[in-house]
């Protein structure tokens, strides 16, 4: 292996987790700008090399320690000046540590104690400060213009010997702290004092023996400083294990091991287990156990590492009582890939034993059951799952072959089936089917097929997905039943609890939903923005509009690009009589929609006569049943910014009971023109419900419904599905109805196509009735 001497600078952002929780989008944007505009130019100017970016941190290598320190000081001063006008609770600050040491070089990465000490020094620095080792101090004496404060020898984690630490005084002149030899003389003068101290230690040794002072201890957490009260049962956070493998690509395996431990523990009713989302918010950060415990509100913290070399696996783990700083146990587990499940079981059993948790008979059986006994299938699943969680079209496409390989190796692997079903459902909902080179109908078929397999031996993920699908069809009571099954399998699964809460709110049971979403948020303190929307919807459903408005304000701050919390916020303001604020919220929605090329929001004035089904319409069905829809509409009805937008105008050509719609922007055609276009091969699309379509339609036409259905064969009209059939500049005819009656769905479909940018849209208003009366052919699907 290659070794060399280097100056290492380690830095991370102070309070990164808190900043991300308050404003995820804004924090990432500001941090990216800071790196690009300040840090990277400074590093380049001082001949440094960025080894890696670790979420909120950086590791930088320098050939010269003077360059490293000068860069660090300039860095801190520039950041302080840049952030001076920012509110204190949003201000970006860094901690930094610098060390000189022997490092191991592997590709672009570096390892070794020289790196580890720099990371530990960074953890000792104050916000906006720099700490350096004695070696750095000796090298820069007389070569820099700022002073140092000797902090003495410090015990640092995983470094066997104490490290003498110096704090850089950014605003103070250099002071002669003496040479290393003088420091040695100074230490020699202390020996009489030390000797006297040893005598005292000998006297009290026997008294202190029971305290076991030789055991590793952390700085204890204070219950008074915890963000949440401790639960009434043992509470634990499992920090992401460190990847100690020589191969950085094994990160998926290390993360997967951590998730498996979290999952195994969360199924135990006697434990309170922090969700994976919040635990992994600390990934790549140098954090103290005290900080984790206080921020998450837990008593115990598990940390560890995983090393995989070929077929060999080693897990190091230690369980810490944060309230005392004491280590309850620390253990090393060695085995092969074939033993990986047993190794995980040993870790879980050790934790259960250490916390004196009693397992029910069902929980003992659950611990014995596994989703698969095939280690290769599990490894393939972990690789696919790591990519799936990134939730981009590219990553989902890359996840598919790994998950398919897991199923090939174990066809009964229920969790792999559930993951693939979730993946394809996400593809369908986000219109990403083109990115996976498949029609959206195929994505829906795959989602249903894999879900069917997953439900043969269901996991929480399978039931949670079933609840999502059923809710999307508007069957909220059924969604509640499926979501309850997910929670029953894992009471600590924050995602399942949030899904149940959402289903309950939409089923007009907001009080129950409120209880479950609060449980989910406690288990996952760094929860996604969607949890806030569910919380606000529950408060809104209970008509607690002040609380709802405050919650939706937080949701908008977390994710200002989502229009739904803005609409809810406007409605909450409307109920509170804060019309001016409501008007501002709706204008913000319309700005978002304008950027996306969509129409401005509108409401129906009179449901019996007016209908606004296009992209400008508020989709009230997303909020639940009729009472919820009316509650939302009532809050919005007096807002000036909701100007009436009509893309459809009623055209009563056949009397009060037989009305078609005239669509602005579309060409309305009669039966004769329709037949001429049909003979020319123009695409015809029928938009009737499936039962009407089956009874009769124009031969060879395509069926796309306007509403969701439980029937997977029913394809819904969406921009992506329409693009699979015609280009935006192609002619397309929409029609509906049966041989006796007209249908309004074709008018709605024509309007939607226009708002999506299709330019040659034809509306056959008379539909199948006029076609039949003209004597043209009809076929059935029965």
Walkthrough of the structure:
The protein is an alpha/beta fold. It has four domains: 2-177, Nucleotide cyclase, GGDEF domain (Alpha-Beta Plaits, 2-Layer Sandwich); 223-368, 3-Layer(aba) Sandwich (Rossmann fold), CATH 3.40.50.10610; 528-645, Tetratricopeptide repeat domain (Serine Threonine Protein Phosphatase 5, Tetratricopeptide repeat); 648-773, 3-Layer(aba) Sandwich (Oxidized Rhodanese, domain 1), CATH 3.40.250. It is 47% helix and 17% strand. It is built from 30 helices and 21 strands. The strands form four sheets. Strands 1, 2, 3, 4, 5, 6, 7 and 8 form an eight-stranded mixed β-sheet that branches. Strands 9, 10, 11, 12, 13 and 14 form a six-stranded mixed β-sheet that branches. A five-stranded parallel β-sheet has the order 17-21-20-18-19. Helix 19 packs parallel to helix 21 and helix 21 packs parallel to helix 23. The longest helix is centred in the first third of the chain and has 22 residues, at 24-45. It is globular and about 100 Å long. Residues 175-216, 605-616 and 643-659 have low confidence and may be disordered.
């Amino acid at each position: 292996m290659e070794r060399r001497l280097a100056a290492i600078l380690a830095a991370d952002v102070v309070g990164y987790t808190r900043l991300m929780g308050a404003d995820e989008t804004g924090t990432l944007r500001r941090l990216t700008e800071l790196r690009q505009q300040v840090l990277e130019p400074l590093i380049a100017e001082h001949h440094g090399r960025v080894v890696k970016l670790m979420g909120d941190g950086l590791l930088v290598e320098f050939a010269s320690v003077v360059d490293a320190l000068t860069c660090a000081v300039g860095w801190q001063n520039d950041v302080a000046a840049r952030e001076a006008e920012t509110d204190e609770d949003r201000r970006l600050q860094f901690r930094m540590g610098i060390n000189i040491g022997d490092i191991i070089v592997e590709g672009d990465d570096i390892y070794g104690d020289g790196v580890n000490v720099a990371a530990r020094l960074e953890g000792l620095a104050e916000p906006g400060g720099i700490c350096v080792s004695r070696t750095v101090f000796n090298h820069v004496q007389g070569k820099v213009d700022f002073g140092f404060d000797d902090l003495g020898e410090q015990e640092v984690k995983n470094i066997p010997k104490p490290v003498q630490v110096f704090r850089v005084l950014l605003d103070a002149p250099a002071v002669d702290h003496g040479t290393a030899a003088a420091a040695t003389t100074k230490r020699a003068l202390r020996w009489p004092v030390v000797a006297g101290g040893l005598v005292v230690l000998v006297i009290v040794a026997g008294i202190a023996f029971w305290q076991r002072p030789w055991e590793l201890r952390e700085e204890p957490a204070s219950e008074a400083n915890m963000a949440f009260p401790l639960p009434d049962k043992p509470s634990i956070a499992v920090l992401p294990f460190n990847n100690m493998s020589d191969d950085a690509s094994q990160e998926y395996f290390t993360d997967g091991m951590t998730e498996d431990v979290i999952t195994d523990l969360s199924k135990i009713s006697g434990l309170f287990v922090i969700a994976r989302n919040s635990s992994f918010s600390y990934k790549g950060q140098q954090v103290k156990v005290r900080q984790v415990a206080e921020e998450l509100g837990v008593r115990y913290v598990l940390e560890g590492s995983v090393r995989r070399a070929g077929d060999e696996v080693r897990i190091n783990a230690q369980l810490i009582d944060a309230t005392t700083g004491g280590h309850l146990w620390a253990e090393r587990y060695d085995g092969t890939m074939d033993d990986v499940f047993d190794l995980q079981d040993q870790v879980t059993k050790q934790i259960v034993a250490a916390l004196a948790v009693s397992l029910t008979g069902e929980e003992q059986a659950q611990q014995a059951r596994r989703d698969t006994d095939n280690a290769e299938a599990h490894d393939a699943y972990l690789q696919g799952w790591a990519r799936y969680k990134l939730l981009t079209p590219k990553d989902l496409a890359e996840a598919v072959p790994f998950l398919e390989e897991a199923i090939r190796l174990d066809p009964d692997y229920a969790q792999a089936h559930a993951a693939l079903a979730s993946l394809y459902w996400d593809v369908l909902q986000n219109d990403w089917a083109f990115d996976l080179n498949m029609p959206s109908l195929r994505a829906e078929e795959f989602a249903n097929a894999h879900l069917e397999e997953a439900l043969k031996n269901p996991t929480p993920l399978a039931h949670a997905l079933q609840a999502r699908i059923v809710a999307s069809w508007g069957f909220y009571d059924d969604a509640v039943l499926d979501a309850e099954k997910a929670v029953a399998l894992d009471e600590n699964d924050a995602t399942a609890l949030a899904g149940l809460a959402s289903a309950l709110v939409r089923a007009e049971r907001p009080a129950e939903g409120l209880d479950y979403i609060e449980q989910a948020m406690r288990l996952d303190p760094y929860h996604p923005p969607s949890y806030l929307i569910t919380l606000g919807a529950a408060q809104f459903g209970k008509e607690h509009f002040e609380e709802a408005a405050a919650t939706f304000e937080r949701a908008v701050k977390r994710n200002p690009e989502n229009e739904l919390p803005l609409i809810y916020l406007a409605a909450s303001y409307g109920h509170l009589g804060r019309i001016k604020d409501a008007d501002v919220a709706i204008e913000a929605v319309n700005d978002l929609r304008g950027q996306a090329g969509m129409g401005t929001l509108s409401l129906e004035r009179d449901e019996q006569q007016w209908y606004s089904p296009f992209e400008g319409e508020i989709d009230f069905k997303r909020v639940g049943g009729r009472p919820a829809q009316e509650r939302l509409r009532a809050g919005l009805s007096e807002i000036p910014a909701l100007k009436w937008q009509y893309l459809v105008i009623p055209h009563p050509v056949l009397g009060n009971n037989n009305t078609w719609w005239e669509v602005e922007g579309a060409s309305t055609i009669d039966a004769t023109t329709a037949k001429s276009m049909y003979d020319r091969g123009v695409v015809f699309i029928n938009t009737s419900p499936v039962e009407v379509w089956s009874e009769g339609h124009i031969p060879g036409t395509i069926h796309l419904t306007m509403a969701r259905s439980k029937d997977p064969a029913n394809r819904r009209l969406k921009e992506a599905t329409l693009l699979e059939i015609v280009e935006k500049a192609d002619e397309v005819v929409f029609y509906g109805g049966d041989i006796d009656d007209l249908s309004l769905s074709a008018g709605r479909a024509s309007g939607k196509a226009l708002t999506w940018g299709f330019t040659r849209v034809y509306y056959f208003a008379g539909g199948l009735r006029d076609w039949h009366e003209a004597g043209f052919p009809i076929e059935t699907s029965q």
